[in-house]
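re: that complex we talked abt at group meeting.

here r the seqs, copy pasted straight from the sheet so there may be weird spacing, ignore it
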Amino acid sequence: MVRDVSFGQYFPGNSLIHRLDPRAKLLIFIAFIVIIFCTFNYAALGVTAAFTALFLILSRIPIKFYFKSLKVIIFIVLFTSVINLFYGVGDPIWQWWVFKITWDGIHRAVMVTIRIICLILSSSCLTFTTSPTELTDAIERLMSPLRAIRFPVHEIAMMMSLALRFVPTLMEETDKIMQAQKARGADMESGNVIKRARALVPVLVPLFVSAFRRAYEIATAMECRCYRGGSGRTRMKTIHMGRRDVLAFIAIALVIGGVIVCNIFLGKTV
Amino acid sequence: MAFISIENVEFSYDEVEEGKPVRNAVDGVTLGIERGEFVAVIGHNGCGKSTLAKHLNAMLLPDSGKVYVDGDDTADESKAFKIRETVGLVLQNPDNQLVASIVEEDVAFGPENLGVDPAEIRVRVDEALKAVGMYEYRTHAPHKLSGGQKQRVAIAGILAIQPDCIVLDEPTAMLDPNGRREVLSTLIKLNRERKMTVVLITHYMDEAVLADRVVVMDSGKILTQGTPDEVFSQVELLKIHRLDVPQSAELANRLIGCGVDIDRIPLTEEDCVKMLGEVLE
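got the structure back, here u go
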């Protein structure tokens, strides 16, 4: 159950997107998801979809990994599009009891589907091409002005990177504990929702206990390796903004401009 | 004074377990370790060997007695990080020592903490990974490696700090035979080729045989020490304290018990085969 999750994974590489400054990538990503949800007609949505496709191609990561990350959220996509289908206003083309489908609803459903797919693909593109360390490093640098108000920027970045590092380890452990409890006759697959939730208690308790023990050991190991907080620390991979980052910012500015122009001149579809 | 000098160290964890009175985990140990030595510390669980290991890099401080590393007292708080740069400690569970999601970034963690220049860190990381034979795996995620590979990455993480001495607290306890072999051959290589001081804490007797000197601990005290030959010929003493001896030494000892004349106790399988050949002739 754990092994085929590719969402949030990192694939080392040397593509243009891999080599972008992680700070630039993060800012562009945030701007991009905002703009995805500010598209009001198909032309504007087309611009963002085209750029999403461009990102995927430039990342040079096999397209099957992107499909895998989509597979995980297929139900969310279906669910939201079906809900949207029935939420349209205007003349119904088809009606049964309180359910009615309108052209407006169909447009909404199509647009929300494309938006979510673009969102997932572009965020996969970010995590596939940026190592967790780079990402936390970027967050640390971007938030560093907050240090002035004594906000523990380094500590939070460190906690995030440790958490990311231990997600797969803890997942493996959950698997192991579940199997151990099943071997002792624990029943986790039958019964209603409440019963199944209760069956998880004997899994969660040992998981928490071991997570705390693990945390203590990690702290020891970090101290053994001379960790003493953020001050005086250097990084192996230094990050610089370069020409390609400027180009990336220009590209995202074009997307934003394109979407705004389409929104103004082509009117609202929904 | 020896490179690492442990002088009459006593230490107890201040917790009372199951109503028993507090007992010293390390109870008056005096030991000197020279530069370039390969020392194995053996003893069964709870004999204080892991506690002793944590004293070598100032992770624990003695209740009484002193530990000096290269002349520096470990109790001097201002020297703690200098000592940890000199003596690197590798722990038992490889999973809980790797802090980054990419192998090379994990190895870089130590030098990054020391504030080493980025270009220099790159050099150190590549060198450390090559020394443990994990260079090809530098961009992998730690959780996809085998136990032996993870432990070798952990050793590389310590090597990148460029310590003079590396202390390993049961590094092979959680590994399969293949992983154990990988880790041990790495240690031998480091000791022989780079003159690195190695202190190996273990409860596997066949690992201790590889060392220059074996220190046997029991209930917080040093029971006996010497070369592997000297230590493992004292089969009776080890048996009384419920410690194993290598199988070949055990066999030789039984043969001696049956009246066979053997002048030297064999410690490895090869030696044992040779000895049996001689006896049969």
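couple things i noticed - Residues 177-194 of chain B form the longest helix (18 residues). Residues 4-245 of chain B form a domain with the Rossmann fold fold (CATH 3.40.50.300).
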